[in-house]
Each structure stands twice: as structure tokens, then as C-alpha cells.
UniProtKB/TrEMBL annotation:
GO biological process: DNA restriction-modification system; methylation
Family of the protein in this entry: Belongs to the N(4)/N(6)-methyltransferase family. N(4) subfamily.
Presence of the UniProt keyword Iron-sulfur in the record: no
EC number(s) stated in the UniProt entry for this protein: 2.1.1.113
Protein name: Type II methyltransferase
Length: 392
């Protein structure tokens, strides 16, 4: 099995090189309007944003920033197949303008935007990010009534393109090989995720650090080398890579496994340093990504080197976790009625029997511009080869 991953340095408001309905799943995290770290980017894209910020008009700036994202959502609607799923990770923001402190509900505005392009909202996920922050609120401290709760969650918004689900041939092997375990399903399809840690990134230009996307302007801590990040949209704005939004690998990997099958195409229109691409590689899906800042894409080259090792680790952990679950369930008296076809362990349901994992054997950078002949300078492509993992 192989997968292909096409990366474009450009604005996702124009995805004309992607055919109508060619994408099966969208997994993305846009820049969050009204988080201060994104002000320059949005202002560089829109004079209306710049004017609203200059005037100190938070409501007007909020709407103008979302209008920048709206153009991308229209293109997403064109390229996503009927019945395809769009997963958008977004956090709300808190901000003070002119002495007025309030929350800006980004998740509400994104839902409105995607509904307006014909998507049906589905039950979503609240991702509650564990934090070690000592201060858990803003405002007046220990004395009521003027303290505010701290935003420690983000929304994983889920949509379907149109009213009908995707249809598959009942004998489609790749769909059943893409199954997840019963216990994974119970954890992944919960509407609250507390088992995925967030990441942090340093605000080098500000002289301190900020927890991205949480709405907490005071955050603390810095990234470890190679932390997963997602970037954003804009026509001409330049993205400073020291100011990128935290996006842990587990989030897109989980969403890709939940809502696509081997061989599907995953799109991220706000690619950043390519965490969604890495997740698609590990999960055995094709991908397409757009990113404004070529510097972020050069970082992707560095991260792709580790994909084979990451793939082996992820698959090993999933298999080990299932074996552990089987031992514990049997100790509690649970009976298993089915045996996995490709492995030496039982599974809970008939649908899990054909589950089959693959690990990345090799990643080849096809090239860009001069290196690839007919591939444009703004485009890079990776070809990934896989080996099946089985012991039965």
C-alpha cells in the first residue's frame, strides 16, 4: 500500500488544483479570531480587521476576522465529497477592548459559517486540555464577585457535507481493515476528551510565552522541540513561526481514524507545520494541505523524517493497549465471541475481525519545482510506502 501527500504553499481560498468532491475528510484548526497572536495576520489580510482593531471595536474585529475564514469554508464545501466529514478544532477567545472584557465565541461563528455553505452540524467534542497552571481564574482573586473562569477547553466541531452519509460496497475490504477497536470507539466517540494533552509554544517576539488557542492571554511554558502546530489563513500576511497555534498529533490522528478509511484523501487548509499531514501518513490516508508560510513547510521536511518511527510506535501502542484490554476484560468475566483474522487476539464485535494495521516503511519526497519537472515550485509531494503488521 502507498499514500501520496501534496503540500501547497499558498492560500486555501483558492484550491483550484483540487477537483470538486475529491476530498473525503477535512481535519483542520484555523487561526482563532480575537487571540492576540493572530492580530497581525488577520490585519494583513483585511483592511476591515486592521481598522476595527485600531478603533478598539472588538465585535467588529471578531466578525471581520471570521469573514477572512469564510472564503476558505466556501472552497472546503466545493472540494469535500457528499457525505464527507469536516472536523474543525477551534477555541473561543477572551479579550479586553476599551476596558470591556468579554468572551468571543469562535465555535458559534464557525458553526454558522459551515451551516451557511450547506454542511449539517453533527454532535461535537469538547476537548478539555489538562493544564498545570497554578492560577485557574482571572479577575479579582479570592474575593467575589468579579473573577472569571479560565477557558481550558476547545471545540472539535464536526459537520457532514449534506444530509446523507457516504456509501460503501458492503464487501469493501479497506473499510473493514480500517476498523478501530471496540474500546477505542468508546473512548474516541465520547463528547468530552480529557486524555489528550495540549501543547504550548513560545512567544519569542513578545518576550514571554502564551498558551495558544485557550483564550488565556497569560499562559506559560514553552514548546519542546518539534511540538505539533497548526497555522492559518490570509492573502498576504506573513506568519511568524514563533507564534503558531498548538495542535497535538493525537487530535488529527484520532479524527482521521474515526472518520475515514485507508486510501481516503484528507484535507487541511490551514496546515501549519503539517501535523494533519503526519497523521494522514501514519494512518495510511492520502492528504492535501495548504499553508501560507514556506518556513512552516520547510519544518515539515524535518518532521517527516521521523514518520516511520512514529508509525511503528503508534501501531505498537494501539496493539498493546488492546491486548491489555483483553486481559483485563477477561479477568472481569467478559467473554469474547470473535477472533481477529490477522492477529492472535480476540475482539468484541464482528466488525473488528478484519482490522489490519500498517506501518510506514519509507517516505520519499517527490520534490518541488526543479526537482520534480511538472510539479510547481509552490508544491511538494511525499510518497509513503507501508508494510502490513500481522502475527496470525
Amino acid at each position: 500500500m502507498e499514500s501520496r501527500h501534496r503540500i501547497r504553499a499558498g492560500d486555501a481560498i483558492d484550491m483550484s488544483d483540487v477537483e470538486d468532491g475529491a476530498v473525503d475528510l477535512v481535519v483542520t484548526s484555523p487561526p482563532y479570531p480575537m487571540i492576540e497572536m493572530w492580530d497581525d495576520q488577520f490585519a494583513g489580510q483585511s483592511a476591515a480587521v486592521a481598522a476595527a482593531l485600531e478603533d478598539g471595536d472588538g465585535e467588529r474585529a471578531f466578525e471581520a476576522m471570521h469573514e477572512c475564514l469564510d472564503a476558505v469554508w466556501h472552497e472546503v464545501a466545493r472540494v469535500l465529497a457528499p457525505g464527507g466529514i469536516a472536523a474543525v478544532v477551534v477555541g473561543d477567545a477572551t479579550r479586553t477592548f476599551g476596558g470591556r472584557y468579554r468572551v468571543y465565541p469562535n465555535h458559534v461563528r464557525v458553526i454558522e459559517a459551515l451551516e451557511s455553505v450547506g454542511f449539517d452540524p453533527l454532535p461535537d467534542v469538547l476537548w478539555r486540555k489538562p493544564t498545570n497552571a497554578a492560577a485557574k481564574f482571572l479577575g479579582s482573586g479570592m474575593v467575589p464577585p468579579n473573577a472569571y473562569v479560565t477557558l481550558e477547553h476547545e471545540h472539535v466541531l464536526l459537520f457532514r457535507n449534506g444530509p446523507a452519509s457516504r456509501e460503501f460496497d458492503p464487501r469493501a475490504t479497506r473499510r473493514y481493515e480500517s476498523a478501530y477497536f471496540w474500546e477505542e470507539r468508546n473512548r474516541w466517540f465520547s463528547d468530552v476528551w480529557t486524555d489528550v494533552r495540549g501543547t504550548r509554544q513560545e512567544r519569542d517576539d513578545a518576550g514571554d510565552s502564551e498558551r495558544a488557542g485557550s483564550g488565556d492571554e497569560r499562559g506559560e511554558g514553552t514548546d519542546r522541540a518539534g511540538d505539533d502546530v497548526a497555522s492559518g489563513a490570509g492573502k498576504s500576511a506573513t506568519v511568524d513561526r514563533s507564534r503558531t497555534g498548538a495542535y497535538p498529533f493525537e487530535i488529527p490522528y484520532r479524527l482521521v481514524c474515526m472518520h475515514s478509511i485507508y486510501g481516503d484523501t484528507v484535507l487541511d487548509p490551514f496546515l501549519g507545520t503539517g501535523t494533519t499531514t503526519l497523521a494522514a501518513m501514519v494512518a495510511g490516508r492520502d492528504s492535501v494541505g495548504y499553508e501560507l508560510d514556506p518556513g512552516n513547510l520547510s519544518a515539515l521536511d524535518e518532521r517527516v523524517v521521523d514518520v516511520p518511527e512514529r508509525s511503528r510506535r503508534v501501531v505498537s501502542e494501539r496493539l498493546a493497549a488492546h491486548r491489555r484490554y483483553v486481559r483485563e476484560a477477561r479477568a472481569d468475566g467478559t467473554a469474547f465471541d470473535y477472533e481477529a483474522t490477522h492477529y492472535d487476539f480476540p475482539v468484541r464485535t464482528r466488525q473488528e475481525r478484519e482490522i489490519r494495521f500498517r506501518v510506514v516503511d519509507d517516505v520519499e519526497r517527490v520534490g518541488s519545482g526543479e526537482d520534480a519537472g511538472d510539479v510547481e515550485e509552490s508544491q511538494t509531494e511525499y510518497l509513503v510506502q507501508y508494510a502490513p503488521v500481522g502475527d496470525a
